[in-house]
Amino acid sequence: MGKSIQEKFDNITTEFKTGKTKPYEYRLEKLKLLKKTILEYEDKIMKALYDDLNKPRMESYMSEYKLVIDEIDYMLKHLKKLMKDRKIRPLLAQMPSKIRLRYEPYGKVLIISPWNYPFFLSLNPVIGAVAAGNTFILKPSNYSVNTSDVLEEIITKVFSKDYIVLGSRVENKALLDLKFDYIFFTGSVKVGKVVMKKASENLIPVTLELGGKSPCFVDRTADLEKSAERILFGKLMNAGQTCVAVDYVLADKSIIDDLIIKLKEKYKEMIPNEDYRRKYMPRIIDEKHLQRINSYFDKDMGLYMDLYIEKTTLDSKFMKDELFSPILPVIPFERKEDLIEIFDDYKKPLSMYIFSKDDEFIDYLLDNVQSGGVSINDTLFHMMSPRAPFGGVGNSGMGNYHGKFSFKTFSHERTILKKWWDFDIRSKYHPYNQKKFDSIKKLM
Predict the structure, then answer these.
(1) What are the E-state strand segments in 118-235?
(2) 3-state secondary structure at position 344
(3) Is the CB of residue 99 less than 8 Å from the CB of residue 416?
(4) Could you read off the pLDDT of 316-356 as tens digits, one per residue?
(5) Do 101 and 412 contact (CB within 8 A), yes or no?
(6) Is 216 noted as a catalytic residue in this protein?
(7) CB-based burial of residue 351 (10 Å sphere; 0-12 exposed, 13-18 middle, 19+ buried)?
(8) N or C of the chain: less Cβ packing under 10 Å?
(9) What was the pLDDT predicted at 369?
(10) 59 counts as catalytic
(11) 260-302 per-position pLDDT tens digit
């Protein structure tokens, strides 16, 4: 019989208390071993992603495998510098003293990852947690069961079986009842609210990476052929089952029909027939998620769903919830000012995409529409670098990660002041009087 969740939690708690995860040498060793193991498991990882989602090897490499390797490489290169104390200049009132900022691990971290990018979205936060000196428990999705099994092998080999829990909602609930020191959750807004509510009971800080209806704006100055191609790249990746996918397009009414024609032409070039689609396009994860998609059409669209493009309006059935599928509504607009009124009714998305050669149009949207991140004249690529933060805002999440931002996310920033013995500001002490007050006013 395997260990219970409580036993695993107790074991990672004890391990953190020993202090073994804090030294630079330990963190470096574990990151190197993690990379070595991932390289050894490349074929297993690729097969698991194919078995779970029908992801072709190239897509799995671009959107999951390589991003994890890049994240580890970044940490290996920069970890020593990230761990160094930062000197802070004291205020006059704090003199004479030295102040430094130290990044310390929170302790026990819970990482709950989703099924749509089950390898990347599991291990990227794990890398940050380890780099910051924490112990952790990873809870991958039970929908992507094959990838979860491979993750269990990797985590067990690099750390121990205590560091991962497989299962479904029952296990999620049991984990959320425990007093972790930090929770990192990637998933739906609905479940994110549950996670935050449970965390609030024990005042546990959280990072929530959620989603939302990420818009794509196309104005009359855009190169329609390139726009169509790049929009489809962002929509077809993982069959639209991406938290930063283009959810819908808002196109200038003067070019909307031409854009739709280009989208359909480019799609036919990219996905020439059903045989190609079944071989090289990811599928809908399972029948449960397909039922949600089918409800838009009142018919079975199939797990290997074709791209569906429709010119529609803002009150369309497709505009109520995040689509998370290869459905692409295209909606006309007349003036850029009208777009701002639209976003009075929509929550802040995780991503925003703008296709335009008009800097004034681009700046107007950047100034007036909030989102987690932005790609201009492309899709998805803003979130791929370990040198830049990725995260949501408002309804699309809170907090960020990747590279040094992951290190900071999983670290407590601790201010340390060391005062000198041979001098002191006497006016700060009782008994107070006017002279002391005047002195303090000058110092502070």
Answers:
(1) 135-139, 182-186, 206-209, 215-218
(2) coil
(3) yes
(4) 999 999 999 999 999 999 999 988 877 765 679 999 999 99
(5) no
(6) no
(7) buried
(8) N
(9) 93
(10) no
(11) 999 999 999 999 999 999 999 999 999 999 999 999 999 999 9
286 to 19, 53, 271, 303: CA distances (angstroms): 43, 9, 22, 7
Angstrom distance (rounded) from CA 220 to CA 30: 51
pLDDT at 44 over 60: yes
User: CA-to-CA distance for 7 and 180, rounded, in angstroms?
Assistant: 14
User: Which two three-digit tokens encode residue 61?
Assistant: 């490499």
Q: Give the contacts of 330 (CB within 8 A, at least 6 positions apart).
A: 248, 249, 251, 256, 259, 260, 263, 309, 310, 311, 312
157 exposure class (CB count in 10 Å sphere: 0-12, 13-18, 19+): middle
Rounded to an integer, what distance in angstroms lies between the CA atom of residue 139 and that of residue 185?
Answer: 10
- Rounded Cα distance between 255 and 96, Å, is 66
Q: Which of 59, 71, 229, 243 is catalytic?
A: 243
Closest CA to 240 of 368, 427, 53, 75: 53
Strand order in the sheet with 206-209: 135-139, 108-112, 182-186, 206-209, 397-398
Residues 271 and 19: their CA atoms lie apart, in Å, by 53
- The backbone region for 336, taken as left when phi is positive above 0, alpha when psi lies in -120 to 50, beta otherwise, is alpha
pLDDT value for 183: 98
Q: Quote the tokens at residue 381.
A: 């690529």
> Within 10 Å of residue 1's Cβ, how many Cβ atoms?
3
- What H or E segment, with its residue span, contains residue 339? helix 336-342
Strand order, beta sheet including 373-376: 308-311, 327-333, 248-252, 215-218, 351-355, 373-376
Averaged pLDDT, 195-200 = 97
Residue from 209, 216, 229, 322 carrying the catalytic annotation: 209
pLDDT at position 2: 76
**Burial class of residue 310 (count of CB atoms within 10 Å of its CB; 0-12, 13-18, 19+):** middle
The total number of residues written for the chain in this structure: 444
Long-range contacts made by residues 316-323, C-beta under 8 angstroms, separation at least 24? 318/248, 319/213, 319/248, 321/213, 322/211, 322/212, 322/213, 322/247, 323/213, 323/240, 323/245, 323/247, 323/248
Return mean pLDDT, the chain.
96
SS3 content of the chain, % helix, strand, coil (to 5): 50, 15, 35
CA separation for the pair 2, 236 (Å, rounded):
40
pTM above 0.90, yes or no: yes
Predicted local distance difference test score (pLDDT) of residue 287: 95
**What are 157's two structure tokens?**
């080999």
pLDDT digits (tens, 9 = 90+) for 236-250: 999 999 999 999 999
